[in-house]
Amino acid sequence: MNNKIELYLDKVSRGLYLTEADKIDVISEIRNHLHEAVNRQEPLDDVLKKLGEPNKLAKAYNHSYKIANDEFKFTDILSNIAFFSSIAVSGMFVVTILPIVSFTFVLTSIFIMGVSLTNMFGITHMPFNIGFTPVTGLPQVFMAAVISIILLLIAHASWSGLKKYLKYVSVNYYQRRVR
Amino acid sequence: MEKQEWLSQVRRGILEYSILLLVEKKAMYGYDLISALNKWEVLSTSEGTIYPLLRRLEKDHLIQSSWQETNPGVPPRKYYNLTQEGTKMLHTMNSEWEKLLCSIQQIKDCGEL
What we know:
The structure holds two protein chains of two kinds. Chain A is mainly α. In chain A, 82% of the residues lie in helices and 2% in strands. In chain A, helix 1 (2-15) runs antiparallel to helix 2 (20-39), helix 1 (2-15) crosses helix 4 (54-68) and helix 5 runs antiparallel to helix 6 (137-178). Chain A starts with a helix and ends with a helix. Chain B contains four helices and three strands. The longest helix of chain B is centred in the last third of the chain and has 27 residues, at 84-110. In chain B, a hairpin with an 8-residue loop joins strand 2 (63-68) and strand 3 (77-82). The chains are: A mainly alpha, B alpha+beta. At the A-B interface, helix 2, helix 3 and helix 4 of A face helix 3 of B.
């Protein structure tokens, strides 16, 4: 029975164009409704039928706010122009540069670590300078580790920055659509 | 025009009014509200309509909600009650509703206008 409920809720959730928080709110409320009904001995199939097709219910939620504020004011157009042009300009850099930075920095840190290790065991003989002083052996591995960690931190920051940016854009986009 | 079609048109506006009237008395959750409305045949509406409507009323700041745990194993309930703005709106609706009923009555009484 619970499976059927969750399956239904999942379908509704996928049709909702709302922010993540609003989605959770909506789904939790319908989940409560279904349990309240079943606890009062209503057959689950009837209850689901009364709620309607999951995608129709989702649509009703998506539209519920639009209908109330149907008029689209001139300031809305201006704010949309501002929003989308700022996303277009910032996206051009953020979406291209951040993934490249995080990807290449990870590769570079692996490369530096690898070279310092192979140098130490005498397999390779790549020069490794800090300023003008060449470093070899264990200090070289240590230095390489420090630099790798810094590179990995930058890569991680770029990656989570990218994720945050994408989330910000989608959330604002969806809010725009329902508002 | 079919009876059902006409009723659903009339109900559309009245439903919001009915919900505000109900939650004015006490905080109610969705299932509770739907059962209350179902007591009157003319007001009974599908669940698929009520829930999105509640969301809209909340977004319009006419009602506010709070989640409350009930029995263990049962998902929490979302209780609604009127906001200050909602109370104000309800007063306006009450007086407009009186005017509306009055006008209809006058039309009926007059026969010819």
